[in-house]
Amino acid sequence: MTKRVALVTGGMGGIGTAVCRRLARMNGNVVMANCLPGYEKKDQWLAQLRAEGYDNVFAAEGDVSDFDSAAGMVRGIVSEIGPVDILVNSAGIVRDNVLKKMSLSDWLAVISTNLNSAFIVTKQVIEGMTERGWGRIVNLSSVNGQRGQFGQTNYSAAKAGLHGFAKALAQEVVRKGVTVNSVSPGYVETDMVKSIRKDVLEKIVAGIPMGRLAHPEEIAALIAFLASEEAGYITGANIAINGGMYMS
Ligand code: CAA
Q1: Which strands make up the sheet holding 30-35, listed edge to edge?
Q2: What ligand 1 atom has the least distance to the C-alpha of 159?
Q3: Which of 96, 132, 137, 238 could join 180 in a cystine, given CB atoms 3.0 to 4.6 angstroms apart?
Q4: Mean pLDDT computed over every residue of the chain
């Protein structure tokens, strides 16, 4: 199995961390965990992964919603480690509110971190992947991009947009050995989900047919499969992983 270089945006977040661990256990891949420049928990996060034995995971600082910052980050990875073969676009934030109370800045923050980032970071790596004839791009979409969610016009729009982006790009690179897919998790045990108001979250969990939140590792396993050699015939797909919340 070939050793690859993987870049995971939002790599120090709830799902991102599980993805980094999983990709790092696959073929001795080198994994670059992206975080914002100056992220205060970066050293602690890296120390934790080192303590777990992951000596092939490194930090890649860059603001993925900012073209120049992301371009500089990817240039650094290419010169120090090598070209990026696997890109997981998992950077994401929430700014939940009903539309009538949502500010323009909360709309724009979510669209730029969750959706513009996919364009910005993919732009830095896609040509290299097609020239080398191998690449894997996996976008972290959401059940709420598929079915919409009360209080999340911004997030649902961004997550639906991510899969539209994946389907269009998948067509552009389908003959070049590069696959582009999305995964759409339901509610996962992460700080993001834990930040939902307790009464609201209880109702959400009660409505999940499987009766529980997903474990981040369950999402990471699917992403790692899509990033593997074996998944080479899957492209333009959006794979649901939501405990039965939304069946498509
Ligand atoms: N459908 C219909 N009506 C609803 C509703 C729903 N899903 N949820 C709430 N309402 C109703 C309420 O019953 C209430 O009605 P009344 O005024 O008649 O009592 C009204 O809408 C206002 O509801 P809230 O009290 O909740 O309004 P709020 O302004 O205090 O809070 C909110 C709004 C912040 C959006 C809150 O509803 C909320 O946090 N919702 C959860 C949003 C959510 O699921 N976020 C997911 C974050 S994690 C994530 O996104 C990861 C992922 O990919 C899955």
Answers
A1: 57-61, 30-35, 5-8, 86-89, 135-140, 178-185, 238-241
A2: 53
A3: 137
A4: 97
Out of 150, 152, 189, 205, give the residue to mutate to test ligand 1, the one with the largest number of ligand atoms within 8 Å of its CB: 150
pLDDT digits (tens, 9 = 90+) for 12-68: 999 999 999 999 999 899 999 999 999 999 999 999 999 999 999 999 999 999 999
Query: Does residue 110 register a pLDDT over 90?
Result: yes
**Residue the block writes with tokens 């040509």:** 127
C-alpha 155/C-alpha 226 separation (Å) is 23
- 124 Cα to the center of ligand 1, angstroms: 37
What value does the mean pLDDT take over residues 139-144? 98
Give residue 12's pLDDT: 98
Q: Are 221 and 169 in contact (CB under 8 A)?
A: no
Structural domains of the chain ordered from first start: 5-241 (3.40.50.720)
Give the pocket of ligand 1 (CB within 6 Å): 94, 96-98, 142-144, 149-152, 155, 186-187, 192-193, 196-197, 200, 204
